[in-house]
Amino acid sequence: MTETRLRTLTSVLAYGLSAAVFAMLALQNLRYGFYTLCYLAAGLSAISLGSCVYTLWVSRYQLRARGHLVALTLLHGVALTGAMSAPGNGIFWSLPILVLTYLVLPLRQALKVTLPVAALVAMLVAWQLPASESLPAIAALATLVASAGLASWHYDHMAQSAEDLAIIDPLTGAHNARFLDETLQKEISRARATTHPVSVLMMDIDHRGQISEMLGDGQMPHLYRRLAEHLFTLIRAGDTLYFLGEGRFCLILPFTPEEGARVTAERIRRSIAEAGWPQVGRMTVSIGATTHISQDSLGERLRQRATDALEEACRRGQDHVWFNADAHQVS
């Protein structure tokens, strides 16, 4: 199940349960003749039900939906009205909505909404109830908000960890090949929209077969990791590194024109050749480079040009950088 579907399911169930609870609360207040509280509870039920319908309507782009913030702010406003209308019981109107907020909104947004509301509810409780009753209620309120916030943080942390596992190669710590295609397409779309250049470097270890025979297959993963760590020290913060397997790496360089790609590729080639590699001694790489042009609309085409440039660099004697401008190559 994707995060979008999980968010949709969680929000639908949370809103639906809230609508049912507030509907029963409205009926209970109607039964005993508390008409003001009945109307307030019915309003909360209606808003929750509408939010449930909204969640289903925006299910395809759940993570970007902004209506939840409006709906929950409205729910808190109505609940605070109920808190002021029911001295002594105001805290019970806001507790379920505080929990609902953490279930529906991302943690940062939920904190921005719930902390001011919780502070206001605490002041209302302290004003409406004697100290012997207000202090335990405020402590319970603080515990609830802290627990809900901790649970939300834990969920976000687990979701981020799962996402990292999906896009990070565990061998080298670089991004994996699947994430390369996705990122490259995004960078091309941004380049076409902003006219800023983006370049791609494709890199392969020279004489990899001989190195593998010398080290043994069991030691090659350690070499790949060391090489990835070395590359991380050479690239900028906005650049991204990808491990494609079998000693091949790819780098995406946003906002980098042709000249910048040439300079970066040459710096990487020279740095690797001059570095000392345990059990290997001297190691060299070949690099193919290319830059996005106006005709590029697919990441696959840009990636293929970089691959063609790499193959040309290997044909020219290895330990070499070759730049592929377009259909014809420019050295």
Automatic annotation (TrEMBL):
Keywords: Membrane, Transmembrane, Transmembrane helix
A GO cellular-component term linked to this record: plasma membrane
Catalytic activity annotation: 2 GTP = 3',3'-c-di-GMP + 2 diphosphate
Annotated ranges, domain GGDEF: 196-326
E.C. no: 2.7.7.65
GO terms, molecular function: diguanylate cyclase activity
Pfam families: GGDEF (PF00990)
InterPro entries recorded: Diguanylate_Cyclase, GGDEF_dom, Nucleotide_cyclase, Rev_trsase/Diguanyl_cyclase
Superkingdom, natural source: Bacteria
CDD domains in alphabetical order: GGDEF (cd01949)
Membrane-spanning parts: 12-28, 34-57, 69-85, 91-107, 114-131
Enzyme superclass (EC): transferase
GO terms, biological process: cell adhesion involved in single-species biofilm formation; negative regulation of bacterial-type flagellum-dependent cell motility
PANTHER family, per the entry: DIGUANYLATE CYCLASE DGCM-RELATED, REGULATORY COMPONENTS OF SENSORY TRANSDUCTION SYSTEM
Name of the protein: diguanylate cyclase
